[in-house]
Specification:
This protein is 63% helix and 10% strand. It is an alpha+beta fold.
């Protein structure tokens, strides 16, 4: 149940392997025929260095491969007849790290170097020397090290791909379930809200036709129905925000401004600075600010003109919306905590990007919404 509690750290394991290989090499070298004097000291040093270098094989596989190969050639030339175990482990680590070509080239060179070292350190014919070199480093062991390293590398790669696939599948299923719930919620509530909205409109129309005063409660129900329908549509659009239906950005602002242009409301768009590519989050936020500002103007301000300014500055994008209408309580004191709706929603979006939002009445009449969004020097 608690297998991971006593797991040995990788660095400790590496050092244990390195010390073990070094001890094995020294034991094998000193237990068999070996030279004496200075050649003995040199050979023992190279045996130890070749083994201890394996401690850093994960961080520097190619460097360890070179050290292990040179030490094998060195102690072979010094007269030690020892299998190059350290080089086999280093070749395995290099192949596992993905350096197959380098490991193969180094191994071919090592085979040739060992033959030359055998000629120098042993007496006898060249044939006997070659046989001695092959005994020191059997090709079969080298192939085994390559095969093991490649097998482990492929297994680790498949494991990483499988983990990535599982994460992508889980994320896609979560998105699909979220969208399914949103659609079901939209379908179930839209019908009921539509009934309320239609009935309230009929009641308001009948009361006005009869010349009777329309109750405030009935007007509130009528307005609430319209707001609920709009919020449901906006929520469903947000949940459908995926790669197939990308969210609107600055490119959609001209069409948005044109949509709000009517016979009683003149809308204009001015773009200053040098337009350039911006982070997607900045573009989406700018679009939502313009959209919400124009919606408030058309519904609450009783304005005849509204101007939209988009100013591209070196590190900031400025959005300013001015109208000449009369500010109302619905516009200046919107406290509905719905993200993306009203002044509070705009402020939350701007603050999340590290920007500033200023709203208020204009001296010459009307209302102003100005947002400054940092772009991080995007160009």
């Amino acid at each position: 149940m608690n297998r991971g509690r006593f797991a040995v750290p990788a660095r400790v394991t590496d050092w244990l392997v390195a010390v073990g290989v070094a001890a094995l090499l020294l034991g094998s070298g000193l237990s068999g025929p070996h030279p004496s004097g200075g050649r003995e000291l040199l050979g023992c040093t190279l045996l130890a260095v070749g083994g201890l270098a394996l401690a850093v094989r994960r961080r520097a596989p190619l460097a360890v491969l070179a050290v292990a190969g040179l030490s094998a050639v060195g102690y072979q030339a010094a007269g030690f007849d020892v299998l190059a175990v350290s080089y086999l482990v280093a070749a395995y680590a290099a192949v596992r790290a993905g350096h197959r070509t380098a490991a193969l080239a180094a191994s071919v060179g090592l085979l040739a170097a060992l033959q030359l070292a055998a000629l120098v350190s042993h007496d006898g014919s060249a044939r006997e020397s070659v046989t001695q070199a092959r005994t020191t480093l059997e090709i079969a062991w080298l192939i085994a090290a390559f095969s093991a390293g490649e097998a482990v590398r492929q297994a680790e790669r498949r494991a990483e791909q499988a983990e990535h696939t599982r994460e992508e599948t889980a994320r896609r299923r979560a998105d699909e379930e979220r969208l399914r719930i949103a659609r079901e919620l939209h379908d179930s509530l839209t019908h009921q809200i539509s009934v309320i909205k239609v009935q309230s409109e009929v009641a308001v129309h009948v009361a006005r036709r009869r010349g009777e005063p329309v109750p405030e409660a009935l007007l509130a129900i009528h307005e609430a129905g319209r707001e609920a329908s709009r919020e449901l549509r906006a929520t469903l659009e947000a949940l459908r925000d995926d790669d197939t239906t990308p969210p609107p950005g600055l490119d959609h602002v001209p069409h948005l401004v044109k949509q709000f242009r009517t016979t009683v409301l003149e809308t204009t768009l001015t773009i200053e600075g040098h337009p350039h590519a911006l982070p997607a989050a900045v573009g989406r936020t700018a679009y939502r600010i313009v959209q919400e500002s124009l919606t408030n103007v058309s519904r609450h301000a009783a304005a005849t003109t509204v101007s939209v300014l988009i100013d591209y500055r070196p590190d900031t994008l400025v959005i300013r919306v001015d109208d000449n209408g009369k500010t109302t309580q619905a516009t200046t004191h919107d406290t509905t905590p719905t993200p993306g709706l009203g002044l509070l929603g705009m402020r939350e979006r701007v603050t999340a990007l590290g920007g500033r939002l200023n709203t208020g009445s204009r001296g010459a009449g009307g209302f102003t919404v100005q947002a400054e969004l940092p772009t991080g020097g995007a160009s």
